Amino acid sequence: MKRAVHAWVELYGTQSGSWLSATRIDAGQGLADPLPPPADEPLYMLGAAHRACLDPAVELLRRGLAIFDHPLQEAFVDVPPHGQAPANGLPAQRGRCPFCQDLELNPTKEDIYPKWLIRELRRLGVRSGSPDPRQRKIEWPTTPVCQQCNNNWMSVLENDVSSILLPMFFSTRLVSEQEQVRLALWAAMKAVLFDSAGEAVIPHGFGQSLELFRHPHPGMYVWIAAYHDSNPLSLVVRPIYTAGEVEGGSDQLDGWCATFSVLRVAFQVFVPFAEGDLAPLPDFHGSVVKLWPPLGEVLDWPPPYCFDSKSINGLAARINDNCEVIQMEVTLTEAVREPGPPSPAPTP
After folding, report:
1. How many CB atoms lie within 10 A of CB 118?
2. 79-136, pLDDT tens digit by residue?
3. Predicted TM-score of the model (pTM)
């Protein structure tokens, strides 16, 4: 095994395979032998393997058949209290990138709203921190992200999505299946950034899955809708709780949902923390379209009706725990369908 850039799985442990641990594994999955590791054998960074090759690699290590053709780098393990291994279901630790989980030795302040969007908002007269009281003011929030993620896959994704979203702001178009997946990945990335900028609760495996696979985690849900309002950047965050099973017990956080707008488009990202089927949700007369998991259909944009800064609260409230009484008074306006340039033919 050899260390690789952007490896899906990195293996640590003893050279004999008596104790092994793997990092950068998807949300809800993991590999770690019981702590503490043996005191009579040194620990090493053993190498990297494709996720699909993890089980064969572990088997070779357990049987002492793995061949190392390079010097091994010594590794160390911090044993947490009570000998419990770190859980992939916990939020990203402060000081670590919310995506790759690397230590933020030289973190960059990532603009949650990208520069291309800020330029477009400014072109339309939206200002941040303008001294002119007649100008609408919007703050541009940031959150720390490692330079590797920020300058590589995240930068590429922003460039890809800008060419998809900008035409959607003002004209009709057909959105291909591949473009819908890119939009879903972008929306999921923004949700993780919104979470990271506040009191992070999303299990770090979900953010890590975006960096590893370049699409949302299979357990995520992403929808898209049309939006039009004088406030182009709405954000509604809803933690989803279920009541404690024991009387007087504390409620359990079972999910997290972010509903946000970017100029003329709204996204909704739901991250469930427990497995199960999602109950049927209102689509507001076909005005909310699922992006992820993909439907395998071309999207005719925009949908029939659009939301505004008030009705988007009704869109956010459709994700709930069925325990609270939800009243949704939603007034929608008909979406304006301005013809735009013809969409490019799909790549064969």
Report:
1. 15
2. 554 434 445 556 666 778 888 877 666 777 778 999 999 999 989 888 655 444 444 5
3. 0.73
What token pair was written down for 49?
């393997």
Report, as ranges of residue numbers, the positions in the chain whose pLDDT lies below 50: 1-7, 28, 81-86, 130-135, 246, 342-348
Tokens encoding 91: 């939020």
